[in-house]
């Protein structure tokens, strides 16, 4: 009598297993169908080439070679770095490690003597040719150090094949002497004829209002507003062989420019600088309107900081609506003109920073890492991993595979034999899994962040299920 009972139990167990397997297959099929219902968004349409910052004669080899995924920039300062003239030495001590991590360029603060001398962050420039070697405005060295230390830093960076970008403030000046101004009928602080370097002497004729007009696009903080229409200003800023731009590039060996407060003057100014001086350039046009950013970049013939991306990331990651990442951004309009960032010396609003870095370091554009995020606030090992992934895997055009409030999946489609990647960002409090379509058929893939231990193989139709940790990200590519 026992044997039939055993048979019945076995039938029940086998039936249960078959039902469970069948149910799992149905669930998997439903999960795959859900992802298939999402209409893939092909964001960019170009030949897939990476972001390039061009070549530089100051490189020891005469040129720079970008990684397959392009370059990564480090903003090598923050607001109110320690005074005392040691900042250039501090950065010099880090460039080897940064180069080893895959940083391709550093952006330095304004390097010349400003009104507040040894206490200034450089955004109130007085003498563009005083790098800490003239005793004026109360000090010889700048807040950051001496000219010799700056030259040493630039040389050290170039030895690591790292480009160096100068922060250039050409909207306004400060620290001039008072003079009678016939255009205003008052005294103005516009007499810069006595700057210690003797270079770029200027007076009321070179500032608004003057014979060229009452004003330009914008002034800043009540400082004397440089008139770029004045021949003396044009000559000393970008035309003369010994002027600011060409001296910085050819003598000091800067490789490019970050233009401060470009809302304050027409984009033709940066265009003229780039035409006459050369080098990589990016403008700080603080505006979330992507149409405005694109207009400025095109007319300036320059890259621009992608504030549209910055504010969308803030709303998406901190507002828990990752579908906002589908919205328009400068890198989507023109990835070769967009410099992306998570934080800078002026603004620090995004709370979920690692998610934001996982976004900009896997997507198109020229990503920037903020000094304090890298050196103090975040996990350097995780950032180094993202930099490596950017440099080696983040290639080709971009397609968004899925997005909702707390999940976002995008694919870089690869370029020139490089397979690209799939990035999965999860802003929820639990592990998530999702079926997605790759560009790889019957191929084993892995998560190059190490956050997932899965090694799935894509199906013949290129679909595969991947996973992502809570409040985290995973980045998948061919296991090779």
Automatic annotation (TrEMBL):
The Glycosyl hydrolase family 13 catalytic domain covers 71-387
Q: Which GO terms describe its molecular function?
A: alpha-amylase activity; calcium ion binding
- Cofactor(s) required, per the database record: Ca(2+)
Cited PROSITE patterns: PROKAR_LIPOPROTEIN
Q: Which residues form the active site?
A: 260, 284
The entry marks the following residues as binding Ca(2+) 1, namely 171
Q: Which segments cross the bilayer? A: none
Q: Does the keyword Nucleus apply?
A: no
UniProt keyword list: Calcium, Carbohydrate metabolism, Glycosidase, Hydrolase, Metal-binding, Signal
User: Can you supply a Gene Ontology BP term from the record?
Assistant: carbohydrate metabolic process
Pfam families noted in UniProt: Alpha-amy_C_pro, Alpha-amylase
| Residues engaged in binding Ca(2+) 3 | 406
- Which positions carry the signal peptide feature in this UniProt record? 1-22
Similarity comment text for this entry: Belongs to the glycosyl hydrolase 13 family.
**What's the protein here called?**
Alpha-amylase
């Amino acid at each position: 009598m026992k044997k039939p009972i055993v048979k019945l139990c076995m039938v029940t167990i086998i039936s249960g297993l078959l039902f469970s397997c069948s149910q799992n297959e149905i669930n998997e099929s439903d999960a795959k169908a859900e992802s298939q219902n999402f209409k893939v968004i092909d964001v960019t349409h170009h030949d897939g080439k990476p972001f390039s910052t061009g070549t530089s004669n100051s490189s020891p080899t005469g040129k720079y070679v970008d990684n397959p995924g392009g370059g990564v920039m480090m903003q090598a300062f923050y607001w109110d770095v320690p005074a005392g003239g040691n900042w250039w030495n501090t950065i010099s001590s880090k460039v080897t490690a940064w180069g080893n991590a895959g940083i391709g360029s550093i952006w330095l603060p304004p390097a010349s003597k400003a009104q507040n001398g040894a206490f200034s962050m450089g955004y109130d420039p007085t003498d563009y040719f005083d790098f800490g070697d003239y005793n004026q405005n109360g000090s010889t060295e700048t807040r950051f150090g001496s000219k010799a230390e700056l030259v040493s830093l630039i040389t050290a960076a170039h030895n690591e094949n790292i480009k160096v970008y100068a922060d250039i403030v050409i909207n306004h000046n400060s620290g001039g002497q008072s003079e009678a101004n016939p255009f205003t009928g008052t005294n103005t602080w516009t007499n810069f004829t006595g700057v210690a370097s003797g270079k770029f002497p200027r007076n009321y004729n070179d500032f608004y209002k003057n014979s060229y007009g009452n004003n330009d696009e914008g002034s800043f903080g009540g400082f004397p507003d440089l008139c770029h229409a004045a021949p003396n200003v044009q000559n000393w800023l970008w035309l003369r062989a010994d002027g600011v731009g060409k001296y910085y590039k050819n003598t000091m060996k800067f490789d490019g420019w970050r233009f401060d407060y470009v809302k304050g003057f027409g984009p033709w100014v940066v265009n003229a600088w780039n035409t006459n001086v050369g080098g990589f350039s990016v403008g700080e046009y603080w505006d979330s309107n992507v149409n405005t950013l694109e207009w400025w970049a095109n007319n300036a013939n320059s890259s621009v900081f992608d504030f549209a991306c910055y504010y969308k990331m803030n709303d998406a990651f901190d507002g828990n609506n990752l579908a906002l990442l589908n919205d328009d951004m400068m890198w989507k309009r023109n990835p070769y003109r967009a410099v992306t960032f998570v934080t800078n010396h002026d603004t620090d609003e995004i709370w979920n920073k690692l998610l934001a870095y996982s976004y900009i370091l896997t997507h198109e554009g020229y990503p920037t890492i903020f000094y304090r995020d890298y050196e103090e606030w975040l996990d350097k090992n995780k950032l180094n991993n993202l930099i490596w992934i950017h440099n080696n895997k983040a290639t080709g055009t971009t397609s968004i595979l899925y997005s909702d409030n707390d999940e976002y999946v995008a694919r870089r489609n690869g370029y020139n034999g490089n397979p690209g990647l799939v990035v999965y960002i999860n802003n929820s409090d639990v592990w998530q899994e999702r079926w997605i379509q790759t560009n790889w058929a019957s191929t084993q893939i892995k998560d190059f962040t190490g956050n997932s231990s899965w090694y799935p193989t894509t199906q013949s139709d290129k679909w595969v299920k991947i996973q992502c940790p809570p409040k985290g990200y995973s980045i998948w590519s061919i296991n090779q």
